[in-house]
Amino acid sequence: MNMKQSAMPVEPYVTAFRGRFLSLMRWDDLTVFWNTLRAQADDSWYIYHVGDEVPTVTTSKEQLLKFITEIDALLRAEHDEEYCAIVYADDHQQPTFIKIFDPHNLGVSCGFSENPPLPGWVMSKIAPINLNDALKPNNSRRSWWKRIFE
Predict the structure, then answer these.
(1) At what angle do helices 61-78 and 27-40 cross, to 10 degrees?
(2) pLDDT by residue (tens digit) across 131-145?
(3) With contact defined as beta carbons under 8 Å apart, do 78 and 104 qualify?
(4) DSSP 32-96
(5) pTM for the complete prediction?
(6) Are 118 and 102 in contact (CB under 8 A)?
(7) 100-128 burial by CB neighbour count: b if 16+ within 10 A, else e?
(8) Helix (H, G, I), strand (E, B) or coil at 123
């Protein structure tokens, strides 16, 4: 008998979420990136505030432009560092997936971790799914946690 369990199919959104991302290290890099995104703005983006209801429709071009302006102001006001390094994109010139970390919940998002904190916001051209549900700890971790409090 084969004791190996077959792997569950991975949702395309989770695959993209776990893909390769490049940091926007400096504030000047972020400014250039936002300007690139503004120039390409259209109504094909989902904007997901992680922890809230998952959006089922894309934003309008106007909503996207407003979000870029507002999130930029929030990050600059609340991430009081000489560097940015809390916005990551799959591509700086033609992005399709962007992670924006909340300055008040960084944990080890700036370094390597097996379980980094979830971003505060995700912008994507792929319909999102609930990341809190999709990225739950594995069963062995839940069993360990449950044993402690039984």
Answers:
(1) 170
(2) 988 887 555 555 655
(3) yes
(4) HHHHHHHHH--S--EEEEBTBPPP-SPPPHHHHHHHHHHHHHHHHHH--SS----EEES-SSS-S
(5) 0.80
(6) no
(7) bbbbeebeebeeeeeeeebbbbbbbeeeb
(8) strand
